[in-house]
Amino acid sequence: MLRSINHFSLHRINSIELRVVSDVAEGVLPVIQAEESVVRKYTQSTGWPHRWITLFVLEDLQPLLRQLRQGARPASLAFARQNLSTADFAALSERTVVNVYDLADLSTCNIFVNRREMMTQHYWDDAQAMRGLMAHEHAHPLAENEITRASRQIHFQVLDGRVATPQETGNRLSKITQVLALLGEKLSLLAPRELLTNEMTIQSSFSEDLLHLNLCNMDNAGASIAGRSGLVQHLQQEVTQGDLTEKETGLLLLVGDLNGFIPLALEIAPFYRAGKPDDARALEQILETSVFPYLDPLAVKCYTDLRDHYIALPAGNLPLSEMVAWSNKVLQILCRALMVKDYSLQYEMGLSER
Q1: S-S: 201 plus which of 139, 164, 257, 308, CB 3.0-4.6 Å?
Q2: Is 136 domain-assigned?
Q3: What is the SS3 assignment for 319?
Q4: Which percentage of the chain shows pLDDT scores above 90?
């Protein structure tokens, strides 16, 4: 599985066996310490299902991706579909930490740490952010319930997306549908799992670690606004040259805003759900100061509507038909914003055949 093993060790945490395998040359010890700290705290509460944990600290996630390409389909992964697309692999390769577990047997799990992405996102040397990431991933199996199982039974597919004008659009506009398909899946079908997992993380006494991690993420979002400003200038030049219309530019910017910033609602809503409104407001205040003033107001409204919809997700059982309706409302929030830009997104949602 690995290119070369630079570290192997075995650790005991109460009755838990932790195996560590790494192809990273140095810096593995802080990762092990973060994992041990998180597991030790989780095992103090009831419901901890694992007896064996394997921690893979890897330079990147190519070994995991190779396994998936060869046919492995771990049930826990959001990407565990019959056929994994190029976009699925790309999204997984950019994950910092991934927990792979079998829903049918929770006695073991595998934690994959992506050093390259951890460095890119400035988490590698941040012990508290590392604990927040580990705590979140370990909360995934703990948060499994009827709602998460129902979310896996829902089918979503974008059928078409087009600008409601007779003008022929360029290649970039033709890619909007693909971007919105991935975004729609993340915000509707995958959202219940992320919401309940973050809520479980907070309720399991990791609220400070998760808050620290998300404060870093909000700061990163603020820093990325500079890139958006450069994009605005570039698109305006194309308008001046006659390569784009103002309407097309507005649509491109809106889709970029939706894709880049609206998923932050998945990080903030759980603090409200878990009874931590002060923490949620601390995160939102960064957005309101450093991000929202620079976005399309339609994107800001989408954030607010999605946040409120996420907060209202029931914590217990939800009939499958109501889960479909809940997910469909997420997509309708996106569609209403896009229609203002004369972009019509056509999709279907229903129960999966498998």
Answers
A1: 139
A2: yes
A3: coil
A4: 69
Please indicate, yes or no, whether residues 235 and 339 belong to a single structural domain of this protein: yes
Let me know whether 207 and 328 are in one domain.
yes
Q: In one letter, which amino acid is 22?
A: S
Tell me if residue 1 falls in helix, strand or coil. coil
CA distances from 163 to 32, 238, 258 (A): 50, 18, 17
What secondary structure does DSSP assign to 276-343, as a single string?
Answer: -HHHHHHHHHHHHHHTGGGS-HHHHHHHHHHHHHHHTS-SS---HHHHHHHHHHHHHHHHHHHHHTTE
Give the range of the structural domain holding residue 32, as residue numbers without chain letter: 7-142
Tallying the residues shown for the chain, one arrives at 354
Give pLDDT tens digits for 86-138. Answer: 556 677 888 999 999 998 999 999 999 999 999 999 999 999 999 999 999 99
Cα–Cα dist 161/208, whole Å = 41
Q: Which tens digit of pLDDT belongs to each residue from 235-273? A: 989 898 988 888 889 999 999 999 999 999 999 999 999
- Residue 124 DSSP code: T
Q: Which residues of 28-64 are buried (b: 16+ CB within 10 A; e: fewer)?
A: beebbebbbbbbebbeeeeebebeebebbbbbbbbbb
d(C-alpha 220, C-alpha 103), whole Å: 34
Helix or strand or coil: residue 19? strand
193 in the same domain as 64: no
